[in-house]
Structure formats: C-alpha cells, structure tokens
Amino acid sequence: MNLTITYPTSNDKQQWQTLYYGYAKFYNMPMNQTILDEVWSWIQDAGQQFYCLLAKNEQGQAVGFMHCRDMVSPLRGAHVGFLDDLFVLPECRGQQVVEQLFVRLEKEAQHHNWTAVRWITAEDNYRARAVYDRLAEQTIWKTYQLNVEK
C-alpha cells in the first residue's frame, strides 16, 4: 500500500478520532469525547512533545496512526522516544502499514536525537508482536503499573 505519513492537521481530527475509537475498542478501554479532545489537544500542542504520525492511503483516507513522545532515560543520560499507541484499520493489516510507520518513526527518532524508541504491547497481541519481533529487539523488562486513586 502506498502511504503518506504526516503529522495530522486540524482537518484530520475526525479521521484520527475514528481510528482512536478503534484502538480503544481493540484494548477494551472506555472512550469518550472528553478523552478524545484531551489527546487531540496534546497532538496539536507542540510544547507537549507528544507526536502523532498519521498514515493515509492514496485517497487521503487515514488507515493508521502512531502516538509517540519524548522520554528521558537516566541510565543512558539521554532522551529516548516512547511509542504509546499504534493502530491500523483491520482491513489494512498485513499491507505494510506498520512497517512504513516504523520507517517514519525511525526518522523522527533521528530528528529528535532519541537514542532508542521503547514501547509495550499486550502479551496476547500476537499479530503485532510478530511484526515487532521482525522490526526491533525484545527487551528483558517486565511492565508493572501502580494505579493511583483520585
């Protein structure tokens, strides 16, 4: 599939939002307009250092996205990237969308002087993990989460 991968503009909000609903549904996470508006504000605010890469097909239809951000790595004494979210429309999977997004992500990492890009995925996300195994090195780290009550 021939794609254009760019930062989204204000005209892309509806397409991005549709993709993000699909992403939340995949992970069985609740989604609402308040969350969507907050994340979109991060994407549009250059000071946030939170980036969205939007993959569009030749017809200009958004078929996938990546969200990434700057993160410090104290042991490296350097900044790294963190890939928060990655989603491709189910009907476009297996058509090199993820691979093209990762090519662009590597260019973004070079642009931001990140020495690495890290991410996590669900243990049972076998299809994605098969792609990640081809594109990157699996680390030894196990992820934990401390939930904080409000």
Instruction: Walk across the major sheet and give the strand order.
Output: 1-2-3-4-5
CATH architecture: 3-Layer(aba) Sandwich
Low-confidence runs: none
Helix coverage percent: 25-40%
CATH domain fold name: Aminopeptidase
Give the overall shape.
Answer: globular
> How much β-strand is present in the residues?
15-25%
Number of helices: 4
Major sheet attributes:
5 strands, mixed
> What value does the Rg take, in angstroms?
15 Å
Structural class: alpha+beta
CATH-wise, what's the superfamily?
Answer: Gcn5-related N-acetyltransferase (GNAT)
Q: Can you tell me the number of structural domains?
A: 1
- Could you tell me how far the N terminus lies from the C terminus, measured between alpha carbons in angstroms? 45 Å
- What value does the average pLDDT take? 95
Give a count of the beta strands, DSSP E runs of length 2 or more: 5
The ordered H/E elements are: EHHEEEHEH
Broad CATH class: Alpha Beta
Task: Provide keyphrases for this structure.
single chain; 150 residues; alpha+beta; Aminopeptidase; 5-stranded mixed beta sheet; 4 helices; 5 strands
SSE layout:
Elements: E1 4-6, H1 13-26, H2 33-44, E2 50-56, E3 62-73, E4 78-88, H3 97-111, E5 117-119, H4 126-135
Parallel strand pairs: 4-5
Antiparallel strand pairs: 1-2, 2-3, 3-4
